[in-house]
Specification:
The chain has about 170 residues and is mostly helical. The protein has one domain: Four Helix Bundle (Hemerythrin (Met), subunit A) (Up-down Bundle). The chain is about 75% helix and about 0% strand. The longest helix has about 40 residues. The structure holds fe (ii) ion.
Length: about 170
């Protein structure tokens, strides 16, 4: 009888940081962790596990770099602390990948739990703070844009005000 796949890390709306690009990438990243976990549970060989692990390492680097570009563009004040967390996981994942490829370590449930806990915490705390900041920044920018290009009602009001000031 086949055993039901155990989902290690499922992306649900509670993980949303409300920045569409970041949310999409998180869903993909969670998916890779699940593939790796399922492959490990299914007793897949080192070659398959190695492929998933390499994909995880590559995607982690790609995704963190995107988040970091977003932080730079937004002049995010908490960037240093956030990048420090990324750096910790980047180092850990690449170390695991290298040691696995050398045959020095095996994939373990502890490692999978570490990964899923790390991502869960990082996304719901650190990335959510970034998401909130980006949302406020975007709505403020939209407000400024609107203020710079007033609509018809606003223009009428400005004309009326100008006429009053000029005494016309
Ligand atoms: Fe992050």
């Amino acid at each position: 009888m086949p055993t039901a796949a155990v989902t290690m890390l499922e992306w649900t709306p509670e993980f949303a940081v409300h920045v569409p690009e970041i949310d999409r990438e998180h869903q993909f990243l969670f998916g890779i962790v699940n593939h790796l976990h399922e492959a490990m549970l299914a007793g897949q060989g080192a070659e398959t596990l190695g492929t998933f692990l390499a994909e995880l390492a590559k995607y982690t680097i790609y995704h963190f770099a995107n988040e970091e570009k977003t932080m730079v563009a937004a002049h995010y004040p908490e960037m240093l602390a956030h990048v420090e967390q990324h750096e910790g996981l980047r180092r850990r994942v690449s170390e695991v990948k290298v040691r696995f490829e050398r045959g020095e370590i095996a994939l373990t449930i502890e490692l999978m739990l570490f990964l899923s806990d790390w991502l869960r915490n990082h996304v719901t705390v650190t990335d959510r703070r970034l998401g909130n900041y980006i949302q406020v920044e975007q709505s403020f920018t939209a407000y400024l844009d609107k203020a710079r290009s007033p609509g018809p009602a606003h223009r009428k009001h400005i004309r009326a005000y100008g006429a009053t000031v000029r005494g016309g």
